[in-house]
Amino acid sequence: MRMVGFGGLALSLVLPMTAVGALQIQANRDVPAGRAAFLASGVATVEFDWQSAAGSTYQLGQIGTLHHLPSVSVGTNVIRGGSFGPSCTNTNPTPISLANWVDGPGFNSPNSTAIADLAINDIESFEIEFGQPHRSVGFAIITGTGNLPDEVDLTGAAFQFAALDSNATVIGSATFTLLSGQVDQAWLTITSDLPFSKLVVCETDAPSVSDQYFSNILTSEQLVPPIPTVSEWGLIVMSLLILTAGTVVFTTRRTVRATGA
């Protein structure tokens, strides 16, 4: 995400990622803003709440009680570690690991207290199976920092996301990369023109067995409206500048005419 300023106007630019087929992904590196935009759409219907699943109390800066679970269910929706989709290197069921892996906006509670986050007890791949077709998924992901120093690195990470229909046919895919050499994070809003029954998340590009953590996951059976991209923001800004310039010229003309009269 970049900030572009025009006078007193500042705009957050959300960059679209590479996508194929019906699946689209937008990454906002301002995690709280990305989550807020997803919730502001008013269509979020399910939240995988890791704190509720863990049932433990956590302290900032401490990993706390670790829970290894084969899966977590919310209604008829289930998340499992390990994946069987395209380009997945982790093709075995793997426990999902819940603990206070990382602290920070978007990963803590709304009142900034420590809560559980998601990691995978191996390569960071997982899948969400929906009880009925969905159109949107949103969550934050971070690397390069954490409350367990032995599981922190700066190698970055690359992911492929694939949406499958009820017949297990891939209807679209998209990719996203966390940058190496630094702490990197983003809120990902993943949407599909076509309803999907499963979302597969695969870590690719020399996967690491540590150091990628996920926030609570929001999902919806409806389509979250897209956030304007860089080019769309450009058109918006240009329109505002033209409108402002036109208003100044019109006001100046009226002032000159009134003075001349």
Strand content: 35-45%
Topology pattern, helix = H, strand = E: EEEEEHEHEEEEEEEEEEEH
* Mean pLDDT over the full residue set: 82
Shape label: globular
- Structural class by sheet pairing and helices: alpha+beta
Helix content: 10-25%
By DSSP (H or I, 4+ residues per run), the number of helices equals 3
Question: Could you tell me the number of beta strands?
Answer: 17
Low-confidence stretches: 1-17, 229-233
Largest sheet: 12 strands, antiparallel
Distance between the termini: 51 Å
- Count of structural domains: 2
CA-based gyration radius: 21 Å
Describe this structure in words.
- This protein has 261 residues and is of the alpha+beta class.
- It has two domains: 226 residues, no CATH class; 33 residues.
- It has three helices and 17 strands.
- The strands form three sheets. Strands 3, 4, 5, 6, 8, 9, 12, 13, 14, 15, 16 and 17 form a twelve-stranded antiparallel beta sheet that branches.
- The N and C termini lie far apart (51 Å).
- The relative contact order is 0.22.
Which SSEs are present, and which pair or pack?
Elements: E1 2-6, E2 9-13, E3 15-16, E4 19-21, E5 23-28, H1 31-40, E6 46-48, H2 50-54, E7 67-69, E8 71-74, E9 77-81, E10 96-99, E11 117-120, E12 126-143, E13 157-164, E14 170-178, E15 184-204, E16 212-214, E17 217-220, H3 230-260
Antiparallel strand pairs: 1-2, 3-5, 4-14, 5-15, 6-17, 7-10, 8-9, 9-12, 10-11, 12-15, 12-16, 12-17, 13-14, 13-15
Name some characteristics of this structure:
alpha+beta, 2 domains, twelve-stranded antiparallel sheet, 3 helices, globular
